[in-house]
Amino acid sequence: MTELSDSVVLGAADVAVSYGDVRALSASSFSVVAGEFIAVVGPNGAGKSTLFKALAGFIDHEGDVVVHGEHCHHLERQAIAYIPQQSDVDLRFPITVAEVVMAGRRRFHGARMRATQADHDSVTHCLEQVDLADMGDRSLSTLSGGQVQRVLLARALAQEADVLLLDEALSGVDTRHTEELIALFRQLCAQGTSILVSTHDLALVRSHFSRCITLDGHIIGDGAPAHEITGDRLDAVFSRTASEGRS
Predict the structure, then answer these.
(1) What does DSSP say about strands 211-215 and 219-223: parallel, antiparallel, or unpaired?
(2) How is the beta sheet containing 194-198 ordered, strand by strand?
């Protein structure tokens, strides 16, 4: 295993995932320090969602994931909050917006298993942060795609995680709210939260991110967007995206 610096909040060493006989992600290694704002890009099927699920501990994987210097193995990774793609959310389940966000507070309930006033206050604050303050009583199934994404983000904020893994979290979000969420992400990073966002929006990556991890079955690049998504690398890595459509 690669030695990780004490300043690293999240480390991946040779993380790999297979679904049966299919290798979805080959051995990939990188590290994240507190407060980093990182884009994860690559064509459809490149392994972005698989990587995030492995880091969050939701699927079996090879290699090591280290959070705050502790080897996680198959332990619950409460310091990591994962926001799935909207397509992974069952909107048929009868649940309100506030109940979804309250789920992020479960790590603080302990043996009591009951929400306190502090939990309710946190839910209110997190909904305000994503501009959904008046929708707590709404059923999740009645919201637009962009609103659902913001509810899931509010749930992650309520978790008070040190690392946010946002899988296409800005997909379907209108321009105004995208800009507002980017500003919120930057504020959280300034406070020490590390945020990784998978996205197909390369213009957004160029304009707002200082680091870009490029995937195509494994990590093939890690650096400034100006280097990772330009010229020959752009043509070689992202040519499949246009022909396959977005996921």
Answers:
(1) antiparallel
(2) 80-83, 163-167, 194-198, 37-41, 211-215, 219-223
Per residue in 145-194, pLDDT (tens digit) is 888 888 989 999 999 999 999 998 888 788 888 898 899 999 999 999 99
Give helix 145-159 / helix 117-129 axis angle, nearest 10°.
140
| Helices vs strands, H then E, count in the chain | 8, 10
Total length of the chain: 247
Task: Say how far apart CA 97 and CA 29 lie, in whole Å.
Answer: 36
15 close to 31: Cβ distance less than 8 angstroms: no
Q: Which residues pair with 83 in a beta bridge?
A: 166
* pTM reported for the whole predicted model: 0.85
Low pLDDT (below 50) residues in the chain: 1-3, 241-247
Contact, 167 vs 83, CB < 8 A? yes
Q: What is the pLDDT of residue 149?
A: 85
Own/partner pairs for 21-25, CB < 8 Å, 24+ apart?
23/217, 24/50, 24/217, 25/50, 25/51, 25/54, 25/61, 25/215, 25/217, 25/218
